[in-house]
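Hey, quick one: can you model this chain's 3D structure?
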Amino acid sequence: MQITKEDYLLFKPLLFSLGYRMLGSVGETEDLVQETFLKAYQISEENIENKKAYLCKMMTNLCLDVFKSARYRREKYVGPWNPEPLLLEKLHALDPSEMIIQKEGLSIAYLRMMEHLAPAERAVLLLREVFDFPYSEIANIIEKKEENCRKIFSRAKQKISLVEGESLSFEENKSMINRFIVAFQMQNTNALLELLSENVTLFSDGGGKVTAAVRPVVSIANVLALLYGVVKKTPKDSYFEVKNVNGQPAIAIYMNGKIQSILSFLISHEKINEMYLTMNPDKLPIH
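Sure thing. Here's the predicted structure for all 287 residues.
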């Protein structure tokens, strides 16, 4: 049973979805998807009983190799690291085979929490919780015993418990963000206090390419001061739009007709708990 072009069209969205959640990088994921299929096409004699599991195993291993390589180490990254935003402008126009990318575990908050997991924990959590693989297949994919995979999953779940209460209702979150925009523009402190958690935290990712806070900014007063400072520095012809980013509403800020930054949110218990301001030009979509 060989890998065909039809398999490429069928499984490409799945592999991209897996790799992007593992790495938080669109470019690296696209490269690994191509590498996975190039390797799979070269297999002629081996009997592949389960193409889906086989391709996921190859993709997972390539992602794990990236974690081990020097190019993925973030020790020297300047300031907080945010996942690369994935702009989903035509949410309802996607091909059915691409709908896999809209499932749970895609938000910036979730992907950021994945940074607290070891590579194997990340793989097991995604394969089990997001893609619903049985433990027997997960054990084969990451080459560990089934019992170990269960323990790894339990440990991983405990580490990302902070996003367990995350609201994934697109319309409700969009309504809250629109209220935040109005209150922010009018500098309505009372309205902002109702929307923001007392210990709201902003993670500003400039990657050393543009000016950004090198440490997380905590508290309503500090977060708002930073955001007002950012707005004051933008040209008069700049504008913003609420976009579908990682399956959730986010604010895309445009300068000179290009996206200059994206502000994403973690909303839980009807409060904005975290914000993720991505300004590193290497991470921004070209639109």
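One thing worth noting: Residues 170-283 form a domain with the Nuclear Transport Factor 2; Chain: A, fold (CATH 3.10.450.50).
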